[in-house]
Amino acid sequence: MRTSAAAARRIARALRAGWKHARDAGSALRQKVAEWWLGLSPFPRHLIINICVAAAVGLVLRQPFVQDNASIAAARAQIISAQMNLMVRFERGSHNGPDVRDNRLAWINIDDNAYRAWGVPLMTRRDKLRDLIAFAVKGKPRAVLVDIALTDANATNATYGRYDSTLQQYLEAYPKTCVRPCPAIILPRLFGAAQEYAYTGQPPPAKRALPSFLDASLGTSAQDPWRTDGPVVWASVEADHESDSIIRHWRLWEVACNAAGPASVIPSAPLLAVALLGASPAANPLGSALSKIKTALVPHGTTCARESSIALAPSRPTTTTLDLGYPFELTEESLQRLIVYSFGWAPPGTSTQLRTFDDVLDGGAIAANSSADPTYLQGQIVVIGSSFPQGGDIHATPVGEMPGSLILINEMNSLLNDRELKPNLALTTLVELACIVIIGWLFTKLRPAEAILASLAVIFVLGQGLALLVFRSGIWIDTVVPLLGVVTHEIIEQTHDRAARIAAGVAATIKSRFT
Amino acid sequence: MFHHYRQALVPALAAIAAGGLLGAPVPAATPETVIGYVIDYQGSSSAFAIRRGATSIGVAPAQGLEAGDEVTIVKPIGNAGQANTITLSVAGTYVTVGSLNSPFCVGSQNGKCGAAPEAVTPGIVAMLTGLQNLLSSVVAPSLRVAKADYDSAQSMPLASRGTSSSPALPIVAAPSAYVPADLAMLVIPISGGSQPLQVALYDANGSLPIAQQHDLTDADAHLQLRKLPVGKYRIQVDDAASKAASWTFEAVAATSLPQADPSLEVAMNANQAFVRDLALTAYASFLQSKGPQWYLTAYQELQKASPDFPPARDLLFRLREGP
Fold first, then answer.
1. Which of A111, B173, B201, B243 has the CB geometry, 3.0–4.6 Å to B322, for a possible disulfide?
2. A25-36 confidence digits (pLDDT tens)
3. pTM of the model
């Protein structure tokens, strides 16, 4: 007992001695740091404080509540629009640039002249559409993407009904009549609000896939996107509808609630088309592409319930990977879903400073001349779409108005060339630090008003300039957060200076009173 | 001491919560009774209703909510086809009310109406709730989170229009459409819908049609009239798929029509078909230039021209498309 008490005392003494030693070493270090700090001239001292504050501010600004803030998201969207616009202007005429690899995309455009010549107001004649599909298929492309709604039948009059039948009969017979390997025909599946169902664990509304008058004859179903009896398949052609109606984000899949239970996950037409380009043409390219996409997309699905419930939705990954010749990330992240526009559009009779997409065939001329040569289309993805205003498919984009078909072509061009935007934390941090250091220096050397102007110039030239340079390679440098960081930092700095001046004033007053 | 402080603070918070300082048009509520507030809504404010007892309250961000308030979606789908939803914060929890969980009763279990409201905590907790509401109503707009949910985010198809499944009259799409009074035949171009169509013309107050055409299988309805008097009219189209739609127009005196040059009027009655067709097309084009409200009149004028006259045919096509 006595022995153990003595041992405890010895241990306590040793600990006290150790603690004293550590304290002495700590105070020596503190003293050395203080001496070093006091020995510094004001500029490096200011700089070090700036960098510490910037690091703290940067850490706070990277928190989700700041990153997901609507105002910051809106500012980012504006900056990205401006960058995209500048990029498309810079790249005008440089068709050999790194982003445009080859001519794997073509567009059969139904323009205003064709629409008027076909003589049916407010829609695309489906017998003419059949002619265009037949023309494209003869060229042995990898896929034909039809970008014209085929949801409702035309029962307005008997003539229009005959146009529908012409297309329906052609597509129905296509699996038997096509020359193998049959080029895939991708038709657009549209979506509406699901009135009866909701995604489990989420507020209403959910979406439902709209059935088409062609489903029965093609053996396809709005509820089962993976069911196809042949080379005709349906896929979504949706984009995010933003508050300013500018199309910025692609949607590479849709989740539809047509019934209770597991939701249908429907791939987008551009994704399917690009996967088809990568599939081996020897076997069943459509089957292989669909199977690959299904594996990558199904984890993004959820379940549907008849009522909105508080039940938890099944957990699902935020990102899955699809092999598109490179590992492509399928993600819900808004930044990575940005469409990198490489092509602008000049409506007929106008000119544009943007680079335009040149592989455009005149739908009206093709429909009028059945002997046109389609061999040019071999191995390509052919989009059949319209640009006549009454088609209701002209949309605003960051690089100006353009038809929906051309937006899909821009999407496919991005997918083909690995131009999915990815944030780069290292470069963003570097830009942020560089801005802080330079601006800190500017505020040390210049008067405040001059320093603010010079700071803005630095952010623009360094941040935006570098961002624009790497933007072409699919790297996104967030200049909004560094900008906010700089502003916040300067506010802290100014407040700190002011507080220090007030404290010094108070101290001086007290000192003068007592001396 | 604290009691006095609380006595002074509670009315101040109540005044702020009632919109006195924030300027929001909210009804009087006290921190003791406010247990939630409106965060945000998708769609027009008129698409939602909040009832407190027998009183209807306007919908606005930061609107205070009391136990028993009933939040209803009046119009589930917006004009752009999007689903209207309203997001509330109730007792610190966010709730999105859509058509499926409407009406939502604030304070009741699971938001179901008819269930007993949960007891509202009095005293300091209620005061803190009021303070939280106040802070949130000031801070929430600037800290609003960008809509991140992928599945239910609004989207739009990038596809060209196929057809209209419901009957449509694009030519009378303008807020007002006019035709000359005294017409003996009214020709109306109809798009979409499943044929055969039933077309009926009613005057403004009538429930019996003044003209009708049954089992229409043509793109144009031809309604025989006995000199259409000046006044307002309604056209109703019913299709074979039981879809119905109606539009209104007004018959106006000839003097109210945009007047053509007298020489053009002479040419419109010329004996030579070419001159007459050219003048009629020119007059219809002139009417078209006066605005969409005159498209239906222009369409009537072009009926007098030869259907084989190419400029008249082109103009008919453009008028059918509407504005």
1. B173
2. 888 898 888 888
3. 0.69
Whether residue A425 sits in one domain with residue A355: no
Give bridge partners of residue A109 from the DSSP assignment: A362, A385
For testing contact with chain B, the best of A118, A120, A122 (most B CBs within 10 A):
A122
Q: Do A334 and B98 touch (CB under 8 A)?
A: no
A335, β-bridge pairs: none
Residues 43-62 of B with CB under 8 A from A: none
CB-CB contact of B73 with B125 (8 Å): no
Residue of chain B nearest A69, judged by CA positions: B145
Cβ pairs bridging A and B (under 8 Å): 196
Q: Is residue A400 part of a domain?
A: yes
Range list of H helices, A266-331: 269-278, 285-297
Q: Which residues of A touch B242 (CB under 8 A)?
A: none
Is A220:A233 a contact under the CB 8 Å cutoff?
yes
Domain check: are A397 and A425 in the same one? Answer: no
Tokens describing residue B151: 């599945």
A364 and A343 housed in the same domain: yes
In angstroms, the CA A113 to CA A93 distance is 27
Shared-domain flag, residues A272 and A334: yes
Most A-contacting residue of B163, B164, B314, B318 (CB-CB within 10 A), to test interface: B163
Q: Is residue A84 part of a domain?
A: no
The answer to whether residues A308 and A391 belong to one domain is: yes
> What pLDDT shows up at residue A481?
65
Is the CB of B159 inside 8 Å of chain A's CB atoms? yes
pLDDT tens across B256-309, in order? 999 888 888 888 888 888 999 999 999 999 999 998 899 999 999 999 998 888
Min Cα separation A298/chain B (Å): 13
Which of A369, A342, A112 is closest to B160 using CA atoms?
A: A112
Residues A398 and A426 in one domain: no
Number of domains in chain A: 2
Domains of chain B, earliest start first: 2-139 (no CATH), 170-321 (2.60.40.1220)
